[in-house]
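Structure first, sequence second, as always.
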């Protein structure tokens, strides 16, 4: 991994609490983790759940209503949008 600040090769620096590899730049000392696969850059929420939340907000639901709704992680994005249940 290269440091986004200095563009130098960073050294391995242990792991974070979720098990992702951490790196530290030898020049500036900045620490960062490896990229998290499957998620939108900088987000810890899955893509399907993010799509559902954005759809609910665009439909006019308030943030409070969106946070109160249970969004199951087992449904696909299409099933969530159509309101279908998985058998």
């Amino acid at each position: 991994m290269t440091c986004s600040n200095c563009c130098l090769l960073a050294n391995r620096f242990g792991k974070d609490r979720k098990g992702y590899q951490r790196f530290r730049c030898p020049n500036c000392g900045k620490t960062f983790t490896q990229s998290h696969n499957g998620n939108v850059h900088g987000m810890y929420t899955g893509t399907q759940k993010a799509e559902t939340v954005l759809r609910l907000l665009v439909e006019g639901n308030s943030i409070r209503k969106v946070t109160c709704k249970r969004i199951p992680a087992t449904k696909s994005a299409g099933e969530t949008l159509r309101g279908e249940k998985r058998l």
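Margin note: Residues 36-87 form one domain.
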